[in-house]
Structure formats: structure tokens, C-alpha cells
Amino acid sequence: DANRQISEYKFKLSKAEQDITTLEQNIGRLEGQVSRYKNAAENAEKVEDELKAEKRKLQRELRSALDKIEEMEMTNSHLMKRLEKMKANRTALLSQQ
């Protein structure tokens, strides 16, 4: 009976050691995954920051371009009015002759 119990305990010990080995391997695998996920998250945050900076830069450029367009449209309108006045003056001069 004692031999049977000893054999049973040896078997349980062997099984427990196998379980411990399996769990240690799982821990190593999971630590590797955590490390990879952490690196991926850090890289994603870095890319996100770079994209935000690029977006701000592009928005500044867009505002600048829109301001320039508005300024050119105003200049164009002013020049068109001057051209119309000059045409009107020329027509008036030609009709007086």
C-alpha cells in the first residue's frame, strides 16, 4: 500500500513538474508577446505623433494657400475694375474724336 502511494506521489510530482515546465514556457511565450505588442504600440504612437505633426503642417500650408488665393482674387478684381475704367476712358476718347 505504501509502495502504491509512493508511486502515486511520484506520478503526481512528475505531472506537477511537467505542468510547471509547460507554464514556464507559456510565461516565456507571453512575455515575448507582451514585448512585441509593447514595441508595436510604441511605434504606433510614434507614427501617430508624426502624422499629427504632418497634418498640422499641411493645415498651415492650406491656410496660407487659401489666404494667397483670396489675396489674388482681390487683386484680380481690382485690376479688372481698372481695366474696365481704362476701356471706358478709351471708348470715350475715341467717341470724342
Automatic annotation (TrEMBL):
Q: Which keywords accompany this UniProt record?
A: Coiled coil, Wnt signaling pathway
InterPro entries listed in its UniProt record: LRRFIP1/2
- GO biological process assignments: regulation of DNA-templated transcription; Wnt signaling pathway
The answer to whether the entry has keyword Cell membrane is no
Q: Which residues form a coiled coil?
A: 6-89
Question: Pfam families under this entry?
Answer: LRRFIP
Sequence similarity: Belongs to the LRRFIP family.
According to UniProt, the name of this protein is Leucine-rich repeat flightless-interacting protein 2
Instruction: Give the species this sequence originates from.
Output: Grallaria varia (variegated antpitta)
